[in-house]
Each structure stands twice: as structure tokens, then as C-alpha cells.
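Write out the 3D structure for:
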Amino acid sequence: MTRKRRILVLCTGNSCRSQMAEAWINRELGESWEARSAGTRPAREVHPLAVRAMGEVGVDLAGATPEPVDRYLGEAWDLVVTVCDSAREACPVFPGETETVHVSFPDPAEAVGSDDEKMVVFRRVRDAIRARLLPELRQRTGRGR
């Protein structure tokens, strides 16, 4: 049996984009990847509209909580993915031969308007993460560390 590759997804608050990415990776690529997510300045909770957006596609984020990146610094990671420009700039150095990749997405938490209008943005980001990040990881699945 092949060892699952470990991936850490980083953004600033760990309340939207990185949580959605972690959930997509574990759901869609769980046979080959094990994902966790963290924030450089973690929020108090996962954004309720992120929970709602992922719930619409059958992914439950209800028990998820934002984590600080410092919690994961001593662990070995095959890949660290930053999903926002701020996290890319603040990304710490990880030990070993950790590869880093930047795939940026807009912050849906900055959406304005009614909840229905904000949900349009959350859905767009949710779908963009699935469409852009997962193919990138599928390409890397067969590669060595």
C-alpha cells in the first residue's frame, strides 16, 4: 500500500478557503492525500457561509475549527499550499524537503450584500478550489517526494 502524501493548506484566517480546500482534498483525493489546514492569523470560527456552501455539495464542515500554523511546524509535510497572498508572504519555513505551491483564491469573507449575495461568492470560490487545486494535486500524486 502506498503511503498517503501529507498536505497542509494555509490561508490567513483558516475560516473559508483553506477549510474548503482541506475538505475537498480529503473527500476527492483521500486515497492518496491527507490534508490539514491552518491560518497565519486564525479566526475564532469557520465562517458560517463556508459551512453552508460546502454543505450544499455534501461536505460537512460543522465540526471544523481554525488552527494556527504554528501547531504544524514540527511535522513533516510533502506539500504546503498557500491559498491567499497574505499567507504566502507569511508562510513559515517547514523542515525537510517540503515543497510549497501558491494557488490563490479571492477571500469570500470579504463579500458584501445580503447572505444570498454573499453565498454567490462563497459558491464561486468553493467551485474554483475544486476546479483549480484538485487537478494540480492529481498531477502530483504519482511524483516522489
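Residues 5-137 form a domain with the Rossmann fold fold (CATH 3.40.50.2300).
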